[in-house]
Amino acid sequence: MKNFIRRTSCLAILAAILLFQSCKKDDQLVVKEEIKASTTAISKSQKLLPAPPIPDGIYKIRNYNSSKVLEISERPGTNGTPIQQWTDYGAAYQKWEFRDLGNGYYRIKSVYSDKVMDVNRSSMNDGAWVHQWTWDNGIVQQWALISLGNGRYLLQNGNSGKVLDIAGGSIENGIQANQNTRNNGWSQQWSIEPA
User: Fold this and answer.
1) What's the CA gap between 122 and 144, in Å, rounded?
2) Would the keyword NAD turn up in this protein's UniProt record (predicted)?
3) Is residue 158 part of a domain?
4) Quick one: pLDDT at residue 31?
């Protein structure tokens, strides 16, 4: 027992020394706001960037306020078709492909239409509608995932810095998605669920 305590104490002291050595002012540790990254070893010259919150794949995007999922509303092959919330039926038009772009942003593409989530007219304004558009690698088509914990995320547009929201915080079917200034309200919180 004494041997175990002695070894445990030595390990704790060693861990504390390593922690203090790694926290010198000359060293930089970069972690994106609200996203936690973990690693086992970091060299002193290496900057730590967060791992993507989710792996590339096919997902449903569920609103925390309404429990409804995002879908392509109508005219699935048409640029400018609105993205709205609706009861989850597991349909292809309610599934989204997330692709990490390697720059802190994701491309979010409809499995059904092969078009991506985009902000109408590249607007910087609150209330601007979110619709689908052909992928052109524009920053308005790129979305950062900001983890709030408990499996919930904000989806922040790369162009405007505003987050994905449901108009008026409604819980009804057919209400269009838009962008708004972040307030962490439930209508701005999303779960990203494997489809």
Assistant:
1) 16
2) no
3) yes
4) 32
